[in-house]
Amino acid sequence: MQAERLTLGIETSCDETAAAVVADGRKILSNIIASQVDIHQRFGGVVPEIASRHHIAAVLPIVDRALREAAVDLADIEVVAATQGPGLVGGLLVGLAAGKAMAFALNKPLVGVNHIEGHIYANFLAHPEVNPPLICLTVSGGHTDLLYIPKLGEYRILGRTRDDAAGEAFDKIARVLGLPYPGGPEIDKLAQQGDPQAIDFPRGLADSGNFDFSFSGLKTAALNYINQSRQRNETLPLADFAASLQWSIVDVLTGKLLAAARAYGVRSIVLSGGVAANSMLRRHLSRQASVMGLTVLYPPPVLCTDNAAMIASAGFFRYLAGWRSGWNLNAQPSLRLGDD
Ligand code: KG4
Ligand code: ZN
């Protein structure tokens, strides 16, 4: 039997310090995530400077745990993959420095990974059978990108948000409601008891005929609704508000995904990024797609949000394709897919 080829993945682009060991790019041996959510919760969002300090303290113990849980030694690792961007520069620098130091000391190759590509590879980890061509929606706190993936490693951006990311809209509105950070899962929970038709929120660019998104109009409408109800001393119908807000986002995302699949003649849709954990998005999109004979796949929630297994997987396939990063690899906070 051929020995498994091991990748160590490191992810520090936002508020999760994560390390993972993945075999042959598709099999997770360990996936350790130290979340800083509790630390940032009282600020209502991630404070970059605080995040970097915690990454520094956490990164090596987390790598150790990932190796221990996978029952492998650092010397068994074939390639080290670390997130290069996009993300918060201070955090990225910590993960890159750790990855570089280990790769250099062991004389192993280093591969810088695009965080968004990592999110896409979460699907290849969760569903080894999935293969391009695919339509993919990467939807997180920082991104809303609709992609056509004709083959492995090739990405065509069909559309993206012109202002806020979908997760950002969830988080910002939730914050005004006084819900804990991150707001997406909180809205998702509240929405279970609500009526999605109760409030008619705007659907930005829904009929634009292209694949771009806009969530700033929704954010303004939602904030106005909250303010008006406060001014009138009315109790906000929280569950209905959450369900309607969620529905306006899910409706637009679903509409554009199905239109893209139709336009490109693609039978499979994959979701990635934190918002891909949204229960209504999963349910509604799957139902609509099955009517059209399309398949919808998404990773389990732990692989939707930031993790290092997805970075190891994307890094391994880059490595197989011949990618190698130099010791001068730098953080790229605004890195876009296809730019590297
Ligand atoms: O991918 P991720 O962990 O970090 C970024 O790269 O941004 O995504 C975090 C985002 C946050 O905006 C969070 O509110 C959102 O994903 N999120 C959700 C759900 N779970 C996480 N949004 C809606 N519904 C959820 N269940
Ligand atoms: Zn992410």
Question: How would you explain this protein's 3D organization?
Answer:
The chain has helices at 37-41, 48-70, 89-106, 115-126, 166-176, 183-191, 216-231, 238-264, 279-291, 301-304, 309-320, and strands spanning 6-11, 16-23, 27-35, 77-85, 110-114, 134-139, 144-149, 156-160, 268-272, 295-297. Helix content is 44%, strand content 18%. α2 (48-70) packs parallel to α3 and α6 crosses α8 (238-264). It is globular, with a radius of gyration of 20 Å. It has 2 domains: 6-121 and 304-320, Nucleotidyltransferase, domain 5 (2-Layer Sandwich), CATH 3.30.420; 132-299, Nucleotidyltransferase, domain 5 (2-Layer Sandwich), CATH 3.30.420. β1 (6-11) and β2 form a beta hairpin. The longest helix has 27 residues, at 238-264. By secondary structure, it is an alpha/beta fold. A 5-stranded mixed β-sheet has the order 3-2-1-4-5, sandwiched between helices. The protein binds 5'-O-[(R)-(carboxyoxy)(hydroxy)phosphoryl]adenosine and zinc ion. The site of zinc ion has 5 residues, from α4. Zinc ion (ZN) is lined by residues 115, 119, 140, 273, 306.
Strand order of the largest sheet: 3-2-1-4-5
**Unreliable runs:** none
Second rung of CATH, namely the architecture of the largest domain:
2-Layer Sandwich
Mean pLDDT score: 94
Task: Give the cofactors and ligands.
Answer: 5'-O-[(R)-(carboxyoxy)(hydroxy)phosphoryl]adenosine, zinc ion
In DSSP terms (H or I, runs of 4 or more residues), the helix count works out at 11
- Radius of gyration based on Cα positions: 20 Å
Percent of residues in helices comes to 40-55%
Please give the domain count. 2
Query: Could you state the CATH homologous superfamily of the largest domain?
Result: ATPase, nucleotide binding domain
- The count of β-strands is 10
Shape: globular
Q: Main beta sheet: strand number and arrangement?
A: 5 strands, mixed
